[in-house]
Amino acid sequence: MSIEEIQEELTVQKVVLESLSEATYDGAEDMRQEAHSEIVRLKKLLQSLKLKKEPGTTSMFHPSA
Predict the structure, then answer these.
(1) pTM of the model
(2) Over pLDDT 90: what percentage of the chain?
(3) Residue 52 burial by Cβ neighbours in a 10 Å radius (0-12, 13-18, 19+)
(4) What is the DSSP string of 13-49?
(5) Cβ-based neighbours of 36, under 8 Å, separated by 6 or more
(6) What's the number of domains the chain is made of?
(7) Coiled-coil ranges per the record (predicted)?
């Protein structure tokens, strides 16, 4: 997946999560959790790919290191 594809999928998942924010039907909470988990996964993947594209970047400068 390219950075652009990941960003697009991240946008889709955020829209899905937002659309489920008021949902109360059976399975809605599971769907919210699934969308949230996917957002977290995509953000980590995006961050990882961006770090690989920045030559000379070390984990010392990474905010979560």
Answers:
(1) 0.76
(2) 74
(3) exposed
(4) HHHHHHHTTT--STTHHHHHHHHHHHHHHHHHHHHHH
(5) 17
(6) 1
(7) 3-52
